[in-house]
From TrEMBL:
It comes from the Eukaryota. Keywords: Disulfide bond, Endoplasmic reticulum, Glycoprotein, Isomerase, Membrane, Redox-active center, Signal, Transmembrane, Transmembrane helix. One of its GO terms (cellular component) is cell surface. This is protein disulfide-isomerase. It comes from Amphiprion ocellaris. It catalyses: Catalyzes the rearrangement of -S-S- bonds in proteins. The lineage of its organism: Eukaryota, Metazoa, Chordata, Craniata, Vertebrata. It is found in: Endoplasmic reticulum membrane. InterPro entries: PDI_TMX3 (IPR052250), Thioredoxin-like_sf (IPR036249), Thioredoxin_domain (IPR013766). Its main location: endoplasmic reticulum.
Amino acid sequence: MLDRRSSTLLTVLLFVSASAFVEELDDSFMERKGAEDIWLIKFYAPWCTFCKQLDPVWHQIGSELRSLGSPIQVGKSDATASPGLAKEFRIRGYPAILMLKKDVTYNYLGPRTKDGIMDFADRVAGPLIRSLTSLQLFQHAMSRHDVMFVYVGATSQLKTNYTSAAETLIIGTYFFSATRDVLPKAVSLASLPAVVVFKDGTYFTYSEEHDGDLTAWINTERFPTFSQIDSYTLYAMGDSGKLVLLAMLEQKHLWDQSLRCKSLVEGVAAEHRDTYRSSFYFGFMEDSSYINGLVMDDIILPSFIIVNLSNDGYFLPLGAVETEQQLLDFMDGVLDGSVEIQGGNGVSQRIRRFVYDTKVTLMPIFTKAPLFGCFLLGVPLSIGVFLCYLCCKRRSSVDDDDDDDDDVALIATLSQRRKKSGNKKSD
């Protein structure tokens, strides 16, 4: 009993200690913050379940940043209690995470995990472009990042454009600069200055003539060609304009069929990269909830799907996909239009998706607590019926008033006619 109490007390003390590194912010925050301050802020609502789940992670982040001597200050704000601050940053949903650095706001759109948020904080709070001054530093950076952009050369217009791209895309990737002698000898550059992306065990050099706008090219190349993809990453991929070929797998156990699907996609990504990299990302997902919402049905696992996040469309194979050639035929059919797109973001699709999301949300409630589910659904329905009743009653009373006015007008008209008739007889 004593050990259990000691353990509980220790947990409480650790939580209180971690909470000391997270400041509660109110509407006065903008007036008292310093011009050079860097803040990592979480906006929440007391009723938000996801906010409550994130809370212990948030306090861990505050504690760890303080222990590392980071200049980042960590705060949180109840958007319902401090609506002015939430309005200042245009908060629309909860939990919302952002970083404020010298009056520039960077919104975090990645997974709500400690590692994801810490990586975002490190990336945005640090130098916009990090200098690699030795081969050892270059190799260390390569070991830490799946995708790495490097500017090579002296000051130029290309570097100006590179800096501008970094200001826009720093929330999603790291940017580096180096001299030619810092890069491995195996890296061959036709001319300097140059912008190079290192990923997938190789590298690609930016060409303005072939690749167009530098910012758009970086936004397209900032993901690995093949990787495990979560819903946040998939959503971010939509900005690139590329399609995403996914192997949809079971979440807990990967059976032989799932491993075969994953290997097929990985093989196509590696062997046909030059042919399809301009049009496709490749990956696999072990959580199908996002795709189920897109398709509005429970997708069969394992299976293949191609999604177009720019318009919420998707493509399904016309038949079984057992070989690499069948997978390539599926991709070619999507590109040449022979495989019809489904879904989309039209008005009817949005209504259907809203109905589906509502059903998915309410079904577990009715299954586990049917009485509470009936109450939850019955309250808004009752309010709606009551409002309709009031509207009908008001309309009925207005119609009655109109009828009374008509009757009064008719009586007045008849009275006037009688008077005129009496006057004529008197004459």
